[in-house]
From TrEMBL:
The keyword Transferase is assigned to this record: yes
SUPFAM superfamilies recorded: Nucleotide-diphospho-sugar transferases
Database matches in PANTHER family: GLYCOSYLTRANSFERASE 8 DOMAIN-CONTAINING PROTEIN, LIPOPOLYSACCHARIDE 1,3-GALACTOSYLTRANSFERASE
This protein's name: Glycosyltransferase family 8 protein
Originating organism: Vibrio tritonius
Alphabetized UniProt keyword annotations: Glycosyltransferase, Metal-binding, Transferase
Origin: domain of life: Bacteria
């Protein structure tokens, strides 16, 4: 049994459901116990999330209510809401004997098999995560230059070590000491505390938005960019590239709606959908002004 953690509030429940469906649909040979830690979620949204797993024999869902009081000592930084810290309680959301948990941001889609993450040797690490190329956060986060800086949207947790080494307490201390500089709060703190105990996962496990822009990450080289786009396993709609906005031209927007159709939120209509945005969306592509590559370019279809 493989364990997955997601966290959501009412606003992101739909995206959480889409992410769950994408995971189960693309990993039919793997069984998952999915824990969703929630804060202030309506009964209606709870029922919808539960319905998301019903058509899949390979997934069970457990909703856990998070006690907001636990967040009190954590600083509120910038525009970030404190619910970004929920993932840090990963060890409390799963049973005592669980050793490995994959945390997924709800703005991700699982688009391929990921069972390899659960089978690889991981004992020497506390966490597994994907590098952000050319991240310029080392000075800000007091990181030695030889270590990469990882994105916190996809995290593989070694639960016994996370628990034993009191990582959550260390992260809280880091945040209290560095609240002026930790402008990506949870991500900076995870990097700041765990950089020496992190397994670097291949970029295909957290393909962030810039990989799909025509003009970004060119320094990685054409072959590497094409490899990561083609072999993407987890796509992360980070930054402003939200597929639930109609005007977004991220190549995986189509996939978002494909999985959305398998959830109780299937009747969702993007707020910005209009004749104007429809024309603009397609004209951008026709006129060669779109910064995103197309899914046909990515997958050769
Ligand atoms: Mn995210």
């Amino acid at each position: 049994m493989n364990h997955i953690l997601l966290t959501t509030d009412e606003n992101f429940a739909q995206h959480c459901g889409v992410c769950i469906v994408s995971l189960l649909k693309n990993n039919p040979q793997t069984e998952f116990e999915i824990t969703v830690a929630v804060m202030g979620l309506s009964q209606q949204a709870r029922e919808k999330l539960e319905q998301c797993v019903l058509n899949f024999p390979n997934g069970t869902l457990k909703l856990v209510d998070f006690d907001e009081k636990k967040l009190e000592p954590f600083p509120q930084i910038g525009a970030y809401r404190k619910n970004i810290y929920l993932r840090l309680w990963v060890d409390e959301f799963v049973a005592e004997d669980v050793e490995r948990v994959l945390y997924l941001d709800v703005d991700t889609l699982v688009v391929d098999t990921i069972d390899e993450l659960f089978n690889r040797d991981f004992d020497d690490f506390v966490i597994g995560a994907v590098d952000i190329p050319f991240a310029d956060c080392h000075h800000r986060c007091h990181l030695p230059l030889e270590y990469g800086y990882f994105n916190s949207g996809v995290l593989l947790f070694n639960i016994p070590r996370w628990r034993k080494e009191h990582c959550r307490d260390d992260i809280l201390n880091f945040l209290i000491e560095n609240k002026e500089i930790a402008t990506n709060p949870d991500q900076d703190a995870l990097n700041g505390v765990l950089y020496q105990n992190r397994m670097t996962l291949d970029s295909t496990y957290n393909v962030i938005t810039p990989y799909f822009r025509r003009s970004e990450y060119q320094q990685l080289g054409h072959d590497e960019l094409v490899r990561i786009r083609h072999e993407a396993k987890i796509v992360h709609f980070n930054g402003l590239a939200r597929p639930w906005f109609y005007s977004c031209n991220h190549p995986y927007q189509r996939k978002y709606f494909e999985y959305l159709a398998l959830t109780p939120w299937r009747d969702f209509t993007p707020q910005d959908k209009s004749l104007y945005t429809l024309l603009k969306k397609h004209l951008r592509i026709l006129l060669g002004k779109e910064s995103f590559v197309q899914l046909s370019d990515v997958k050769g279809i």
